[in-house]
Specification:
The chain is of the alpha+beta class and about 150 residues long. The chain has one domain. The protein is about 15% helix and about 35% strand. Strands 1, 2, 3, 4, 5, 6 and 7 form a seven-stranded mixed β-sheet that branches. β3 and β4 (about 55-60) form a beta hairpin. The longest helix is centred in the last third of the chain and has 16 residues, at about 120-135. It binds zinc ion. The site of zinc ion (ZN) has 6 residues, from loops.
Amino acid sequence: MSDALAIVATPWKESIGTCACCGRTSKTIWGDLAQGELTVALYFVQWTLGAPEHAPNIDLVVGPWGDEAKPEHRLAISLLYHPAQGGGSFMVIDGEGRRTDDRFLCGRALKREDVVGTPLAQEVFALVDAVWLTEPRICEVKELDNAG
Ligand SMILES: [Zn+2]
């Protein structure tokens, strides 16, 4: 294992909103994931504060970035996080209609069945692991694990 291959999250911004279903405060954080010098994905994590029964949303845009890269070279993949004592679990969901289903960001958003059971799924879970391990603000989402 080489450290050069580790995927590392770099936080960009965050925003506060209102949960559409219950009116409680929701928060979104986003940033990029890089492997060495290479940006490999963007991530968005959205959750409702103090509401572990609301599965946080994770939206990824996976693929090349930079001047030469075009949106059609990238794919949007969305997941839910289910908080649980000792650490929750991730589930791939349909990406259509999510915030990342945007032609300025990606060529298309994948459905759950486009991801589950394919080699891409391993890549997706490696990206999500990197967010959970290296994004400093994700501690706020992990707090939901103990709030249920
Ligand atoms: Zn709500």
